[in-house]
Specification:
By secondary structure, the protein is mainly alpha-helical. It has 10 helices and 2 strands. Among the domains are: 82 residues, Orthogonal Bundle (Cytochrome Bc1 Complex, Chain D, domain 2); 81 residues, Cytochrome Bc1 Complex, Chain D, domain 2 (Orthogonal Bundle). It has a two-stranded antiparallel ribbon with strand order 1-2.
């Protein structure tokens, strides 16, 4: 009679454990899904900005073709409700898209508020002060003649004929609100002063001047006068910046 051989119980248990562990590595089985960081975290802010914003506003919030967002005065001046409207709905007459709504990739208002908070935490110093000049473009028309004089005195030394901001093809791409925002806050990443100055005269001398709200209205009116063609971008709903 043949004797039956059986594995010791302890060895059987070990085999089962090994086989069970091997099932976790079966070919074709997807890796465990790691949830994306939420927008109320620094990692979530960084990932969302890199995916949705960096292409226009610059990798680190500066040196992009659109408005730099790494600007404490700008972030301190624009109310959260306006920033939320811009992010959710886009900007009328510009190429700024909206990220909210019912689309598959739509982001909720709460998530966008978290993104705004993350942006201010990352890029708005606690000492940042809002601009003394209103940021929002009013419907009134400024004094074109005054704007022409101000442009000659404070802007023409940099915005010369070789880098002409009065080019109608450039002005087709930017709204009056964009012009106002650039004048009020400047572009520190490019060395352009805001309304608080100082400016540079045509001879290179420093001009310690401050632009008033009326001055900014006039400059926008003067520049907009050269927009002989309509804005290129299709209109989107939302608050213009």
């Amino acid at each position: 009679m043949m004797r039956k051989h059986s594995l010791p119980k302890s060895l059987s248990v070990v085999c089962l454990l090994v086989l069970g562990a091997g099932c976790e590595q079966l070919p074709g089985k997807p890796a465990p899904r790691v949830p994306a960081p939420t927008l109320d975290t620094a990692a979530g802010f960084t990932a969302f900005y890199a995916d949705r914003c960096a292409g226009c506003h610059g990798v680190d919030g500066t040196h992009g073709p659109a408005r730099p967002l790494r600007d404490g005065a700008y972030l301190a001046s624009i109310p959260e409700v306006s920033l939320l409207a811009i992010l959710r709905d886009g900007e009328s007459g510009t190429r700024m898209p909206g990220f909210g709504g019912a689309a598959i990739t739509g982001v909720s208002d709460d998530a966008l508020r978290a993104f705004i908070a993350g942006m201010k935490t990352a890029w708005m110093p606690k000492t940042a002060e809002p601009s003394a000049v209103p940021w929002l473009q009013a419907s009134i028309t400024g004094d074109v003649a005054l704007g022409e004089k101000l442009f000659a005195d404070h802007c023409a030394s940099c915005h010369t004929n070789t880098s002409n901001i009065q080019d109608p093809f450039y002005l087709r791409l930017v709204s009056d609100q964009h012009l106002r925002t650039s004048i009020v806050f400047g572009r520190s990443d490019l060395g352009m002063p805001g309304a608080a100055g100082p400016f540079q005269a045509s001879d290179g001398a420093k001009v310690n001047a401050v632009l008033s709200a009326n001055d900014v209205d006039a400059l926008v009116a003067f520049l907009a006068k050269h927009r002989t063609l309509p804005l290129v971008a299709a209109k989107t709903k939302g608050t213009s910046r």
